[in-house]
Design a protein that fits this description.
about 180 residues, four-stranded antiparallel beta sheet, about 30% helix, globular, binds iron/sulfur cluster
Length: about 180
C-alpha cells in the first residue's frame, strides 16, 4: 500500500509539486481515444510508444484495476517555436522516468509511468516498433496512447485543460504515475 506522505516527500525531492492523487478507478479509459489514435494521428505506427505498440483497451483497464493509487502530474508550457514542444516534453519525461526509477528503488516495485507525451527521446528517428526501440528502458507510453480520456480525467480533479487551436498557445500536459 502506498504511503502517500512518503511519496509526496519523494515527489518534492525530485522537484514535483503540481500533482494530485487519483483513485485509478476514476481514470477514464475509453475506446474512442484508441479510435482517434488509430484514425487521424500521424504517430500511429510511427512511434514505438503509440498504437499499435501498446496494450489493448481491455488490457489497460486490467492494468489500472491492479493499482490502488495513482498520481497525476501537471506541466504547463508555452513555446515560441512549435518545433520546440517535443524537446520540452522530452526533458519532462526524462525527469519523470528518473522519478519512477527512484520510487522503485524505495520499494514501490509496481511504479509505472505514463509520460506526458509520446516518446521523443530519438527525435523524429523513432523506430516505430517496440522490438527495435533504441532506448527501451526509458520509453513509456502517454496516457492518450493508453486510451485514457485525459480531458475528462483531469477535469474531474479541477486541473485546467482546453482544446488548443494553435501551437503558440500554452499547453497543459499531464503524466500519470501508477504506484502502490
Ligand atoms: S526511445 Fe527512441 S525508438 Fe524508442 S520509443 Fe522513444 S523515440 Fe522511439
Amino acid at each position: 500500500m502506498a504511503d502517500q506522505q512518503q511519496l509526496e516527500q519523494l515527489f518534492q525531492e525530485y522537484g514535483y509539486r503540481d500533482f494530485r492523487w487519483v483513485d485509478p478507478r476514476e481514470v477514464v479509459i475509453a475506446q474512442w481515444v484508441r479510435t482517434k489514435c488509430t484514425f487521424g494521428c500521424g504517430n500511429y505506427g510511427r512511434n514505438a510508444t503509440c498504437p499499435p505498440n501498446v496494450p489493448s483497451v481491455a488490457e489497460v483497464r486490467q492494468l489500472f484495476s491492479e493499482y490502488t493509487t495513482a498520481a497525476i502530474f501537471h506541466f504547463r508550457q508555452q513555446v515560441a517555436d512549435p518545433e520546440d514542444r517535443h524537446a520540452w516534453t522530452r526533458g519532462v519525461n526524462q525527469g519523470l522516468v528518473k522519478l519512477e526509477r527512484g520510487l522503485f528503488l524505495e520499494g514501490y516495485y509496481k511504479a509505472f509511468l505514463l509520460c506526458c507525451d509520446s516518446c521523443f527521446l530519438c527525435g523524429d528517428d523513432c523506430t516505430g516498433d517496440r522490438k527495435t526501440c533504441k532506448v527501451p528502458r526509458q520509453a513509456r507510453p502517454s496516457p492518450e496512447s493508453m486510451a485514457i480520456d485525459v480531458f475528462a480525467t483531469v477535469r474531474k480533479l479541477g486541473f485546467p485543460i482546453e482544446v488548443l487551436t494553435g501551437y503558440s498557445q500554452a499547453m497543459n500536459r499531464y503524466a500519470i504515475l501508477l504506484v502502490e
